[in-house]
Design a protein that fits this description.
425 residues, alpha+beta, 8-stranded mixed beta sheet, binds adenosine-5'-triphosphate, binds magnesium ion
Length: 425
């Protein structure tokens, strides 16, 4: 019988890969907390209606990417394709948005039924950030400064660039929409099937097309930035001023519309050239209208989400070496030594909680246990046999020293030895 395999597009993260994940996750959490953001944890499943109402019916996600199923009682449920809708649902449900300001982040798996390829999966991880109750351009700028700092801390700042645009208000976008439809109607012959359909439903999304045959017609389309009113223009300019003041480079991309319906004013993407057409590692924007759309009181909101797999692919290009090794490998030979050794390992972990100890449980020969000690990458091997036990001693070998020096310690002294060795561990 064939072995059961993972679902296409859903990946295991193997032990040799987890150190890199943990490294990135820690830096991200540290940077978020240095700006005063708090974590929120959300369910992986929500009512399908939530995503339809927030993301919009005529978007890639809702049209074709959602994992939707009927619960046993007939409710239509969906594995979350993104976190913004669920986060807002939770905040409305728990009354967090009454005259309050929030800076939140979440981390978890998202699900989209897409064609799997490098940087595009059916289960992928996002760090998401959502802020509520702040209308000023300073919060838009803060998100850009925060992400800029994050890339610097991760050492990938040179590999990503910031693209920015303003989508204006809903009213401004309606004016633009008409101009855009008129323009595309003069070029019907160059539009592909998806775009022809979108012409009546969501014409702005045509600008987002990845079809190279449409590159020219999209390039010459009227620009939304020319339809913005004074308020939107000023908001956008204030963000640019802050970025200029603080020396964060950016590029205004007037065709950046983002896939989701709920954005207004600022939208942005951090893009890399290293990952082919899956080049966006972080994307977001302002979505002031969404709170009302989901039944709340009109309020400001802006956030972003970054794709961890794409970020890690980028980190891998830096070839940073990570070792997930232990400090001590404990070799035990014989029944008596196994018992004493187990107790000693526990005692060491209690006395020095940061110490990483791996205990050999194979009951095999000293030689084979030594091989495993070398392979483990440990700094020290502790060797306990019947002789040592009867003398109340243990042998310790420095595995990374060229001479591999070995000495004996009394069992009573082991804890002290490793307390003193903390600076080399
Ligand atoms: P794309 O245009 O690449 O499909 P998107 O606009 O659908 O991206 P968002 O919904 O804005 O993406 O999600 C934010 C980020 O999450 C993306 O920039 C990307 O890094 C990551 N992401 C989105 N979809 C996937 C996926 N299927 N696999 C891996 N990462 C993804
Ligand atoms: Mg997508």
């Amino acid at each position: 019988m064939a072995n059961i395999q993972a679902i296409r597009g859903m990946h295991d993260v193997l032990p040799e890969q987890t150190p890199l994940w943990q490294y990135a996750e820690k830096i991200i959490r540290d940077v978020l907390s240095s700006y005063g953001y708090s974590e929120i944890r959300l369910p992986a499943v929500e009512k399908t209606e939530l995503f339809k109402r927030s993301i919009g019916e005529v978007t890639d996600i809702v049209e074709k990417e959602m994992y939707t199923f009927d619960d046993k009682n007939g409710d239509s449920l969906t594995l979350r394709p993104e976190g913004t809708a669920g986060c807002l649902r939770a905040c409305l449900e728990h009354g967090l948005l009454h005259n309050q300001v929030h800076r939140l982040w979440y981390y978890g798996a998202m699900y989209r039924h897409e064609r799997p390829q490098k940087g595009r999966y059916r289960q992928f991880f996002q760090f998401g950030v959502e802020t509520y109750g702040m209308a000023s351009a300073d919060i838009d700028a803060e998100l850009l400064l925060l992400t800029d700092r994050l890339w610097k801390r991760l050492g990938i700042r040179e590999k990503v660039h910031l693209q920015l645009n303003s989508l204006g208000t809903i009213a401004e976008r309606l004016v633009y929409r008409e101009a855009l439809v008129t323009y595309f109607q003069q070029h019907l012959e160059t539009l592909d099937e998806d775009s022809l359909r979108r012409l009546n439903t969501n014409p702005l999304r045509i600008l987002d097309t990845k079809n190279p045959a449409m590159a020219d017609v999209v390039k010459n389309a009227p620009e939304l930035i020319n339809c913005l009113g004074d308020d939107s223009r000023q908001h956008f300019q204030e963000i640019l001023n802050t970025l200029n003041d603080l020396g964060v480079s950016y590029e205004i991309n007037t065709r950046l519309v983002r896939g989701l319906d709920y954005y207004s004013k600022t939208v942005f993407e951090w893009v890399t050239d290293e990952l082919g057409s899956q080049g966006t590692i972080c994307a977001g924007g302002r979505y002031d209208g969404l709170i009302e759309q989901l039944g709340g009181k009109a309020n400001s909101a802006i956030g972003f989400a970054m794709g961890m797999e794409r970020l890690l692919l980028l980190l891998e290009t830096l070839d940073i070496k990570f070792e997930n090794t232990v400090d001590i490998y404990l070799i035990r030979v014989g029944k008596q030594a196994e018992k004493v050794g187990l107790r000693l390992a526990e005692q060491l972990r209690t006395q020095i909680p940061t110490l990483k100890i791996q205990m050999d449980c194979s009951s095999s020969s000293v030689k084979s246990q030594f091989k495993k000690a070398d392979k483990s990458g440990a700094i020290y091997a502790l060797i306990l046999g019947g002789d040592e036990v009867s003398r109340g001693e243990i042998s310790i070998k420095a595995l990374r020293d060229e001479q591999q020096t070995q000495q004996n310690l009394t069992l009573a002294n082991v804890v002290n030895f490793f307390k003193n060795a903390q600076n080399v561990l």
